[in-house]
Amino acid sequence: MRKKRIQIVLALLMTLFSVVEKNHAQNNIDDTETLTEEQKHIIPISAFTAQGNQENLRSALNEGLDVGLTINEIKEVLVHLYAYTGFPRSLNALGTFQSVLEGRKEKGIKDEEGRTASPLPANKTSRELGSEVLVELVGTSEASGVREFAPVVDQFLKEHLFGICLEEMFWILRREKLPLFLPWPV
Alpha helix (H) ranges present in the chain? Predict the structure, then answer.
């Protein structure tokens, strides 16, 4: 189950960041590097959430559940999308998902709940975790540029985006020796 969750998180990262390494893709394509059906269904769920297209999202959510995504896997995707699409889109998507689940339950469809997300380490705050991720990414956690100009952005990035959303994904990528490309300067 952990491997499946890691694969889903990696698929989400690839979708959100448009991570495509041309040489890697051309030189290392084999059957083990293709997306699973579950991972493929994260892409339209993410895209329709980002667009705010609730009608198509409803269909994508149903299809994702039909191919085996669990309720908690989809919830995690929708929650993590807040950092990229904004709270309103993420919250609207979660509301749509809740409605989809209610409709499926009324039809007698029992969807798998799945595992809940791993908790953050108890011995560190999200700010400490985010600072560590920043050091790994850019060599320092000291604010500069926009993060220095607007210190609250530095706080949000360290505590929320890097400390909560990306902390687990970052360490998975590092362990698997995969690149992480961010679409913005830090």
Answer: 2-17, 22-27, 37-51, 54-67, 71-80, 82-85, 87-106, 126-138, 146-149, 151-156, 166-176
- Nearest CA to 21 out of 136, 177, 182, 179 is that of 179
Check residues 143 and 166 and name the one with the higher pLDDT: 143
Q: Could you tell me the end-to-end alpha-carbon distance of the chain, in angstroms, rounded to an integer?
A: 33
Residue 185 has pLDDT above 60, yes or no: no
Name, in order, each residue with C-beta under 8 angstroms of 60's C-beta and a sequence gap of 6 or more.
Answer: 41, 44, 45, 48
The CA–CA distances, whole Å, from 129 to 19, 65, 118, 144, 169 equal 23, 32, 14, 18, 12
pLDDT tens, residue by residue, 60-98: 999 999 999 999 999 988 988 888 888 899 999 999 999
Residue located via tokens 């210190």: 151
What span, in angstroms and rounded, lies between the C-alpha atoms of 121 and 141? Answer: 19
pTM for the structure as a whole: 0.65
Give the residue carrying structure tokens 């690149």: 179
Domains and CATH numbers, the chain: 1-117 (1.20.1290.10), 119-186 (no CATH)
CA 99 to chain centre: 21
> Each residue of 11-29: b (16+ CB within 10 Å) or e?
bbbbbbeebeeeeeeeeee
